[in-house]
Automatic annotation (TrEMBL):
Compositional bias segments (type: Low complexity): 1-21
Organism: Gopherus agassizii
GO biological process: tRNA processing
Name of this protein: tRNA-uridine aminocarboxypropyltransferase
InterPro entries, sorted: DTW, DTWD2/TAPT
Domain named DTW: residues: 42-236
Keywords: S-adenosyl-L-methionine, Transferase, tRNA processing
Top-rank EC class of the record's enzyme: transferase
Classification via SMART domains: DTW
Pfam families per the UniProt record, alphabetical: DTW (PF03942)
EC number: 2.5.1.25
Region Disordered, annotated ranges: 1-24
The keyword Transferase is assigned to this record: yes
Length: 274
């Protein structure tokens, strides 16, 4: 009984166009497998700042951690942990380990974080988060006991808002804000407004106020300035705030369809505090 041709050698079928093309491709790859494989070598990193040695930031850190009485608790959104150009590690490198504690997460319950709960219940604790209920830190520092603790939330504005309002512990400390008109020096990351500051900058200004020492701010800002300078030298672009881009007609992304987000952008253009 005859069987249908299957394209095998036994069938005796002629080589088709597809097989011929495959043969040509195989022929074109001859010798490639014998080429030496170039090994991927990681750039040497600094053991302290974890940056490539060519752009090491250690020379810009203080020789010894700053002596401060104020303790910082940085509440960091998990998304910030994976960012390459973070400011919290720079801040931590400037301070003693017991004066800058970083907690990562979205939800902070009393059972899981008893130490944080005790800190939030302490009358000498402040939480830095702007709003209608927030007092100016400059005014509070005049009458607040020392040493004190300041809680700072590290994340985008939407992430910080979510953490602040959805954790009851953070409603316990006195709420404060910074009264400043300076622009952020963290120019390699886009900020919502011209006066929005990075976590490091907020901490630097807050510590300078609480410790009554402006030199603290200058010392903590130094590695941030160096980081931005290195990045700009290696191809990064200066990021203007979203407020600046909108006001000058430079915002090139599609406008949001969400009415709430669109309203926020309108407020930015009209200089309304949000």
């Amino acid at each position: 009984m005859e069987t249908p041709a299957t394209g095998s050698e036994e069938s005796g079928a002629a080589e088709g166009p597809a097989e011929a093309a495959m043969g040509r491709e195989d022929g074109g790859c001859e010798g490639l497998w014998e080429l030496p494989v170039e090994r991927c070598v990681r750039r040497a990193e600094c053991g302290r700042c974890r940056r490539p040695r060519k752009v090491c930031l250690c020379p810009f850190f203080p020789v010894h951690p700053l002596k401060v009485s104020t303790c910082l608790y940085i509440i960091q959104h998990p998304a910030e942990e994976s960012r390459v150009l973070r400011t919290v590690p720079l801040l931590a490198a400037c301070l003693p380990g017991d004066k800058c504690k970083v907690l990562i997460g979205r939800r902070f319950g009393e059972d899981r974080y008893p130490e944080l709960a005790a800190v939030c219940r302490n009358s000498s604790t402040l939480i830095l988060y702007p709003g209608a209920e927030a007092a100016n830190l400059e005014d509070v520092a005049l009458i607040f006991p020392s040493p004190s603790t300041i809680i700072i939330i590290d994340g985008t504005w939407s992430q910080a808002k979510d953490i602040f309002y959805k954790n009851s512990l953070f409603q316990l400390p006195k709420q404060v804000q910074l009264k400043t008109s300076i622009s952020s020096q963290y120019v390699i990351r886009t900020q919502p407004t011209n006066t929005c500051l990075s976590t490091l900058e907020c901490a630097a200004i807050a510590l300078a106020i609480m410790e009554k020492n402006d030199g603290i701010r200058e010392t903590i800002l130094r590695p941030l300035q160096a980081l931005c300078s290195f990045q700009l030298q290696h191809g990064a672009q200066i990021h203007h705030s979203k407020e600046h881009l909108l006001k000058n007609g430079l915002y090139d992304k599609p406008m949001p369809k969400n009415k709430r987000k669109l309203r926020r952008m309108e407020l930015l253009v009209n200089n309304v505090k949000i």
